[in-house]
Amino acid sequence: MSFEKLAGAVQRYHPSPDLKLIEDAYKFAEEQHSGQVRASGEAYFTHVFETALLTAELKLDVPSIAAALLHDTVEDCLVSHETLLGKFGPEITDIVEGVTKLTRIEFDSQEEKQAENFRKMLLAMAKDIRVVLVKLCDRLHNMRTLSHKPEDKRRRTAQETKDIYAPLANRLGIHWLKSELEDLCLLYLRPEIYELIRSKFDNTTKERDSYISETTQNLIHALEESGVSAAVKGRCKHFNSIWGKMERSNISFEEVHDVIGFRIIVPTLRACYEALGIIHSTYKPIPGKFKDYIAMPKPNMYQSLHTTVIGPGGQRMEVQIRTAEMNQVAEEGIAAHWRYKEGGGLPGFDLQWVRELVETQQYLKSPDEFIQSVKGELFPEEVFVFTPKGQLVRLSFGASPVDFAYAVHTDVGHRTTGAKVNNTLVPLDHRLRNGDTVEILTSKTHVPNKDWLRFVKSSKAKQRIRAFLKAEEHSRSLAIGIDILSKDLRKVKSSLKRVESSGKMLEIAQGLGLKTEGDLYAEIGYGKLSSTKVIAKLLPEGVDVEEKLQAKPTPLQRIFQRAAQVSRDKVGVKVSGFDDILVRFAKCCEPLPGDRIVGFITRGRGVTVHSGECPRALESDPLRLVDVFWDDDMHTTRKVRLLVYSQDQMGLLANMCKAMTDSGANIISAHAKTSELGRAENTFDISVNDVRHYERVKRSIEMVPGVIKVERLGSGGTTDDDGAVDPPEKKRAPKTGHVRLK
Ligand code: MN
Description:
Elements: H1 3-11, H2 19-32, H3 45-57, H4 62-70, H5 73-77, H6 81-104, H7 111-127, H8 129-144, H9 151-171, H10 175-189, H11 191-203, H12 205-225, E1 231-236, H13 239-249, E2 260-266, H14 269-282, E3 284-285, E4 291-292, E5 305-310, E6 316-323, H15 324-332, H16 334-340, H17 352-361, H18 367-378, E7 382-386, E8 392-396, H19 401-408, H20 410-414, E9 416-421, E10 424-426, E11 438-442, H21 459-491, H22 496-501, H23 504-511, H24 517-526, H25 531-536, H26 545-548, H27 555-567, E12 573-575, E13 583-585, E14 597-601, E15 607-611, H28 615-619, E16 625-626, E17 628-630, E18 638-647, H29 652-662, E19 666-674, E20 679-688, H30 691-702, E21 707-713
Parallel strand pairs: 2-6, 13-15
Antiparallel strand pairs: 1-2, 3-5, 4-5, 5-6, 7-8, 9-10, 9-11, 12-17, 14-15, 14-16, 18-20, 18-21, 19-20
The chain binds manganese (II) ion.
Manganese (II) ion binds near residues 72 and 138.
């Protein structure tokens, strides 16, 4: 450990480094960390020194080297922002503080925090990628020295490295760093596996070495015979990728055939394809294994030809063919580009995905969605397709024509009506494959469909569709709200225009914690707020608004309102976009959890839920339709009414009751009626958990000898609604159902 060693490492690639600056940082860090000791017993300064050497290995610029030396001074020595700024200037200070922020991030915390931390990391990357590169060097050195840490710390750090930093290194194309991180993760997370592979390797060193040198000679010979000069290198796969193969294909170490791979470096791009032809005519290629990453580079800029052939001794071997420049990018990724553009930022390296994620994240409300989209970017599994003009479009694996349309342009996405893949019409949920040519059919009047959300894969498409639907839903609610409020205001001899221009409406809105009058109308339209409540604030105190509006609820409605209030947390139905809206079940149909359901916004009384097949629901105003779905986390029971046709025979009722209780249903009431011809019609109100439970109960009743047929009828209310709603005696129209706007 010496300054000269570091200076030498930098000078090896940098023509004229500012060594004084590096030396200043070196001395300052050494002084600041003096007396601090690492878990290994070494001086703390060794850590920052090694980190700086790694940044030199990545061939980073001088400010990055200095920042690497200083990267722990803020966190561990409490050096102030002003001190750093005064001594080293804003550029280095920014990198050091960026690294400090990343160090403080814990990625293993709960979802929301994790999403926030991903955001921070992406913002740091978008701002200055050097922050992340220095952090990767810091992490690599910490991983190399992890054995000195206690067991739980080892696991945590290794897991975080596996989840975040190794994929990040991969995404940035720094292959050697990624492989080493992954192998170290394997060592600490699955020590028994690591040990197994290591011992197998040690036992076969001799054979392997002779196989490699023999095959290398054969390859060089075959290439030279055809006039292609090439450098050939044989190498073993990394432990982690061997383990990956064993795990994926569920095979033993001995069954992993292409443990050894060969890399052929040729002078020109043309020679890559020539070399490929020679290899394929010398050894039998395995179909489906050829990949052309030269014509279609990986997102991290990696270029190479890959093929797998049957090599000497019948062994499969993977061969990679590339030029020296491609090899440099393959090994160093973003860092290789860095060198050519010293001081000039990072043109040439595609960080578009980082910018897109940063841009996208502001639309994504749920942390889960955001994490998924970040992970999607970090673990790219992609397909490449073409526009009719031959432009390459990169999409995530499993993408549909709709994803493609949104990738081209948001407006194209919104207006998609159909798609042609390789000149054949396909459904919109068709899965695109590599090399497809995709043409999108659009119509100016077409709008996104919420069904698209079922199959789109890219976060851009999802996010744009949701934003559109949300805006649409909002404007619909706004119109409904304005309509309701205008009519009710007319009843009290006022008008919306008048109240609005007096400024009173804004006042009321703000009094309710809303920003604008529009928000207030939308709340009314959604059914979250009643117009009665708003109008009450406009009238003098003591005036009975409900009487004025002639909308006084009947006593039964009052009871129902209360019941709904009480039970709304226990209904077990969620309304798209809201978690605090009143929900109740219509009485005309009897949806059970698992049934398809639809919701309608009622006037000031939340949302009424119908079964998807209910004729009343189909008649209702489609303007008031909202998305509702069963809340899987809620475990409520629902009443269901059964009509059982059976023989009229002794003991049958008891047997049926036993069948029901045996299959876990609660019998609320039972009623039997005999009819002609020795038949009986038995009506039961029972409570069940969901559709599947109901089906089980039904089957068990059908098994009872003497039972002819079981039918499901209506009953009413949730069973835990504290009795405020009496079970209806017969089917009847909903008392407080959806009200049509006239
Ligand atoms: Mn550190």
